[in-house]
Each structure stands twice: as structure tokens, then as C-alpha cells.
Amino acid sequence: MPSTATPVQPAVRGLVAELEAERDALADAVVERIRVAVPEFRPLPRGTLRRAVVNTLERELAALREVRAPTALELEAAAAIGRERAEQGVSVEAVLHAHRVAVSVLWGRFGELARARDADVACVLAFSETLWRWADAVMEVVAAAHRAVELQLAREEQQRRDAFVVAVLTGTIDATELRRDSAAFGLDPDRAYVPFRARAREDDDARGLSRRIALALAGEHGLVAGLDGDVVGIAGRAPVPIAGLTVGVGGASGLDTLPGAFAHAGRALQTALAFDREGVFSLSDLSILPAVLVDQALGDAFVARYLAPLEALGRHGTDLEATLRAWLAHGMHTEDTARALFVHPNTLRHRLRRFEAVTDADLRRSSDVMELSWALERRRLEGRA
After folding, report:
1. Which residues of 16-47 are buried (b: 16+ CB within 10 A; e: fewer)?
2. At what angle do helices 72-87 and 92-116 cross, to 10 degrees?
């Protein structure tokens, strides 16, 4: 393409002058073509679109008249249009399509004038190269500016969504806002949802907090947000287990009562993490473990009652404690436990009777079994097992 230092061909300048004289008619033609070819522009006020088309034509024809590339100021003006269309909700594909329509109208009218004036090949080539290179440069900056605004709008929308999720789960939103915003974010204010709180294992933190994993937890109709390093959310059903994650869930509740259920989800998560559990847990899934975690005094009392006497037996006491853990882990089934420990069932029975003799416990009594389980979990929590 000729540089700005090259004398501008008089033929090109003359044809561009004729186009400039027809600018208003060209603008009207471009507006009508865009509204027909690009449906997303139809809701836009005709006057708004026409002003943008006129301003673009002025800059475009100035560059064509001088056979030059667009200036930085002209590109910035084009970028401003891209940003405006993004804010109006017009897609970048529609914006680029409209720009191509405008260029085709201008190129078509130039062709008519060039044939009528019997323009030479050099004139047509100079105009053509300038027009299409100008169009490419402009469309590039328009697309970049449009996408930058789209990203910013998406970030702002995500921030509003995250704030809504946290407000619902923590009870810091009033009833009017709750009903209004729940519909805006795709939640049914009249149905029940499952609150959850999730955390990644320490060696898999980045994966656990990724957006993809968070959305998988929430499911198709759920919402997620971040809170103090955890993923929290509102789901239409209990989250599915995901490797590397520990998830606490509360009971299904209406949006206005989710804070209480979310508190249960948080407690379930803390309990599961304390006992190195991976998966999805409600408080009821964890049996006595939440109480073991919270009630230290009672746990210490059970340790003193059932495990402290074994310490006096030395290694035999340690073996007894390991036997009790295996026995409880295998549902108190003698045969299964014996196989797991590679001992004869009679050996296992002897160990259990020895424990009862030392502690005065009765393993046929459900209360003693529950207290023993509590003691063993309390010791595990202390890292002494």
C-alpha cells in the first residue's frame, strides 16, 4: 500500500470526494443493511446506530482519500464503539458482522463510481488495499475493546453472584432482596436447596478451588462462591464426591433458612477434615465424630476410662488398642476382624475379654461400645494413635 510520503493519486482522491459528497446516503444504506443482516442491532435506536456509522465513514473516507492506514486516534475512536456495543449487550460477532456489512456497502458504491469514471487499475488497487487493510486494523481493535469490556462485565457479574451466595448462606440478606435477587440468579425462592462447604486436600489445593470443580459440586442449577479459602455453594442436590475434596453438607432447606443448614455444613466439613476424611458428609454421616471434636472434656474422660488403663500393660496394651480399633472398623464381627489381624478367632476373643477385665467394660453393652469408640476417636484426633 502506498505510504503517506507517496503522492496521493488524483483519481483516488476524486472518487473519494464523490463518496464523501454521498456520505449521508451511504450512512442510510449502511444502517438499513446492518438492521437487515444483523438482528442484534435492531433493538438499538436507529439514531444511535446512524451516528456511529456517520462517524466511522468520516474516518474511513479520510484514510482512503490520503491512501493511508488509520491513525492512533482513529483506532481509539473505533475501540470506543466496540466498548459501547459490549455495554449494550451486542455480541462481538454481531459487531464484526456489522462492520463487514458497512465496508461492503462502501466498496460496492466505489465500484459503481470507478466503472462510471473508467478508473484505471492502479486507482482501484490503491483504494481496495487501503479499504481492506483499514478495515482489518479497525476490526482488530474493535474486537479487542469489546472483549475487554465483556470480561470486565463478566467479572462484575461474578462478583455480584458471589456476594449473593455468601449473603444467603450467612444470613446477611433481607427477605425482599432475597426474593428479588434469587430470581435474577436463577434460583427458585420456593424450593429447597442443599448448602455445602468444600475444601481441597493440602496437596491438591489448586484443583480443589478451580472454577470447574466448584461448578461440578453445585450441579446444573446451583451457585458457588469462595469464602475464606473454601468453596461454598447452594445446590439443587447433594454434591457428588470428587477426589481430593472434603465436602460438608447441610440439610435441604428453603432459601430463607439456609444459614442454619449452612452452619451444619461447616461443622461437618471441619469434623471430616479433623479426622482426615475425604468425600461428602452431613453431620449424621459422621456419627459421634462432631461431638468428639467439640466436647474435649467428655472425650478426655472416656480416654481415661477406657484407654488409660491399657497404658500400664505396655506393648500388650498397645496391641489391645489396635485390636479394638480393628474390631470396631469391621462392625464388631469376630471372624472378619480375626482375618484382618491374621489371628485365630479365639485369640481375638481372648483379647477382648482381657480389655473388659482391665477396664471393667462390657462390650455387649451399647453404651460402653459407644464410649469406647468416642475414646478411640479422641485419641486419634490428638495424633496419639
Report:
1. beebeeeeeebbebbbebbbeebebbeebeee
2. 130
pLDDT for position 22: 95
Cα 147 from Cα 302, distance rounded (Å)? 63
Q: Cell 500393660: give the residue.
A: 313
Q: What is the pLDDT of residue 213?
A: 84
Q: How many residues does the chain have?
A: 385
Parallel, antiparallel or unpaired: strands 223-227 and 230-235: antiparallel
Q: CB–CB of 326/341 below 8 Å?
A: yes
- Residue 119: all three cell numbers together: 478508473
Centre a 10 Å sphere on the Cβ of residue 127 and count the other Cβ atoms it contains: 26
Query: Looking at residue 202, what is its pLDDT?
Result: 65
Rounded Cα gap, residues 7 and 106, in angstroms: 23
125-153 pLDDT, tens digit each: 999 999 999 999 999 999 999 999 999 99
Q: Which helix (H) or strand (E) holds 138?
A: helix 121-170
112 contacts 66 by C-beta, under 8 angstroms: no
Q: What's the per-residue H, E or C state across 219-281?
A: CCCCEEEEECCEEEEEECCCCCCCCCEEEEECCCEEHHHHHHHHHHHHHHHHHHHHCCCCEEE
d(C-alpha 367, C-alpha 269), whole Å = 26
